[in-house]
Amino acid sequence: MKLPEKIANYLQLLNIGYAAIVHPRTGSLEQIASHTGIGLERLARAAIFEDSHGLLMAVLPASRQVDINALRSEMGRPELEPAKRETIMALLSDCAEGAIPPIAAAYAIDAIVDNRFESCDEIYVISGNNESLLRLSNSDVYLLHTGSWHGDISMLGKPISRGVTRELVIPEKIAGTLTDADRHG
């Protein structure tokens, strides 16, 4: 199990200790959690967004989805949209497709970390290689995100596949699909 070069270098630079948790290749974070016995609320994943200000990585529990309205509000960036697949692939050229490590500084981009990790002693992060997770202490995760924003940017949602395209729920679009009967019970 080899870590992506940028992740390995960044962990070494900050002298961050970690344990690698090997898992079989799977199609979803839910399957990884099931195989490893790690709760989705302690498994960190990332989604990458962009606007005219540049790229932004949102780091959140695998049990949750990005709340785009909350993200835009927290960041004061109303035009944030999911980054294009090609942009993500170019940025994470040393990673396996769909395996986005939630360590933004290794790739020199800004990040916001969901507040829901505050109560976790240990956090497991996608390593970037489709074969392992990294177990980190909570304090090391916050050290890796020194200078990042922190906020409530997620909402409950069905765990998603590891692909780079299914990262976003826009509440107003969902609300627009409801009938009056759905709204009123």
UniProtKB/TrEMBL annotation:
GO MF term list: aminoacyl-tRNA deacylase activity
CDD domains: YbaK_like (cd04332)
Residue ranges of every copy of the YbaK/aminoacyl-tRNA synthetase-associated domain listed in the record: 23-140
Protein name stated in the entry: YbaK/EbsC family protein
UniProt source species: Candidatus Reidiella endopervernicosa
